[in-house]
Amino acid sequence: MNGFWAVFKRELKGYFSTPVAYVFLVVFLFFAGYLPFREGFFEVRQADLNLFFKMLPLLFVFMVPSTAMRLWAEERRTGSIELLLTLPITVPQAVLGKFFAAWTFLAIALLLTFPMPAAVFYLGEPDPGLIAAGYLGAFLMAGGFLAVGAFFSALTKNQVISFILSVAACGILVYAGMPSTLEYLSGTLPAPLLSLIESLSFQIRFDAIQRGIISVKDVAYFVILIAAWVYASMYVLEERKAN
Amino acid sequence: MIEVQQLTRRFGPIVAVDGISFQVQKGDILGFLGPNGAGKSTAMKMLACFLPPDSGTAKVCGYDIVQQPLQVRRSIGYLAENAPAYPEMTVAGFLNFVCDARGLKGAARREALDRIIPLCSIGTVYHQTIDTLSKGYKRRVGLAQALIHNPPVLILDEPTDGLDPNQKHEVRELILKMAKEKAIIISTHILEEVEQICTRAIIIARGRILANSTPQKLQADYHGTLEEVFRKITLGKKTA
Fold first, then answer.
1. How far apart are CA A118 and CA A199, in angstroms?
2. What is A106-154 written as a DSSP string?
3. How far apart are CA B98 and CA B92, in angstroms?
4. B130 part of a folded domain
5. Weakest-pLDDT range from A35-44, B34-43, B111-120
6. B108 close to A (CB below 8 A)
7. Please, are residues B67 and B237 in contact by the beta-carbon 8 Å criterion?
8. Residues 27-66 of B with CB under 8 A from A
């Protein structure tokens, strides 16, 4: 356990000892506020955060890979991976330590969007359960994107490559489930394949949770997805840490 | 304390380390000599459990590097080539991270830090971030990291590379100071270093051990300075 906590602590502190975290937070919070307002956050005259949560997947597609890209690519480039993995720290401990530190950081970023729910509570009487469910969904989705991003970071020394690959992968995971995409594909693909694509996408899971329906199925989807990508990064690192 | 048996590692078609075997006892300082690309670093990376060997194995303090890598890493202090560290951290933050990872807590940690900071003379830069340090200080921070848990086995990959003559001297003194109760392997290109501090020397080229002896005996056997010996052995005795 020493290994896990050592890595977790170092990583989480590391975010705040460089400007990276602050730049990320400012940009993230700006767009998390701006995008819902552009869609008419007040004009809809509803005391809920529907528009806010609706814009989050789009924002996460870009923001989460930017957090994830340095996780392993940087260690590889500077050679510090050789230091890290010759300390008594196992690869799974290091991978989990980094993953949970980054996930905690994203949770902090999400919590800092509190002015949005605060405004809605001030102006009306929203359903607090719905808002809590929305945040839970957003947190799980951030974890999913992060697991994908961490995997691509483990794959390469180059942060730019890792960023582009994970944006592409996250984009596919989100947009595959958008109604417009499914409509477009419905002309060419058979129905069973279509529903498979839909059920693999982040979008319908997040929508369901955000609407307040927290089912075991949807939560399990995110947990399994995260576990699978995290396991894949352990495998990749074990195989090619020294290349 | 270190027993290497038929250790082999390939990178694609290249055999980087080709079935090397040797032993290092407590009190020994083994100098690993060889031209660039000879396989020195690869061998050291395998001993430090960073690279798994393709075949063969080694025992460090009785622990097998393939079967018990965690125990091996606990008993080793390892300084990798170019002394990698986390540039954005301060020396204090970095050493505390290493203590966390090695499970040094409370009084044991204070004691370890009080011992290591003067030993490596890094007191003056203790609160600076690592990327603002000179090469010499970075190397010393790397050494501090390797020594902090007072390991019985030290593996140092070019510990004096890129240092000025005074710093080289300091690092050698430091190594000599600890030599009695440890088994130490260092790799180097500097032959005078081997003469000064090593009790044994292994010359390695193209992944194979070509000579395993003491520096004095090598000089006597090949009738020349260590530099001549090195050339004779690694170039296939053409210059003899």
1. 33
2. HHHHHHTTTHHHHHHHHHS---HHHHHHHHHHHHHHHHHHHHHHHHHHH
3. 10
4. no
5. A35-44
6. no
7. no
8. 45, 48-51
Residue B239 pLDDT grade (very low, low, confident, very high; cuts 50, 70, 90):
very low
Residue B129 maps to a domain: no
Q: In chain A, which residue ranges form alpha helices assigned H by DSSP?
A: 2-17, 19-38, 50-68, 70-78, 80-84, 91-111, 115-123, 128-155, 159-175, 179-186, 191-200, 202-210, 216-240
Q: Is residue B121 part of a domain?
A: no
Count of structural domains within chain B: 1
Beta strands in chain B (DSSP E): 2-11, 14-24, 29-33, 55-60, 63-64, 76-79, 153-157, 183-188, 200-205, 208-213
User: Is B75:B63 a contact under the CB 8 Å cutoff?
Assistant: yes
So where are chain A's domains?
2-240
| Cα–Cα distance, A82 to A106 (Å, whole number) | 27
Q: What is the pLDDT of residues B180-238, one digit of tens each?
A: 889 999 998 888 888 889 999 999 988 899 888 888 888 888 877 888 888 888 887 54
Whether B80 sits inside 8 A of A82 (CB atoms) is yes
Residue A14 has pLDDT above 70, yes or no: yes
Q: What is the rounded radius of gyration, in angstroms, for the C-alpha atoms of chain A?
A: 19
Is the Cβ of B131 closer than 8 Å to some Cβ of chain A? no
Distance of residue A81 Cα from the nearest chain B Cα, in angstroms: 8
> Taking the alpha carbons of B127, B131, B133, B136 in that order, is the dihedral positive or negative?
positive
State the residue range of the domain holding B6.
2-83+151-234
Within a 10 A sphere around the Cβ of B168, how many other Cβ atoms?
20
ipTM: 0.89
Residues ≥6 apart with Cβ < 8 Å to B97: A6, A9, A10, B86, B89
* Chain-chain contact of B103 with A87 (C-beta, under 8 angstroms): no
Length of chain A: 243
Contact A10 B97 (CB under 8 A): yes
In whole angstroms, give the CA distance from residue A98 to residue A72: 9
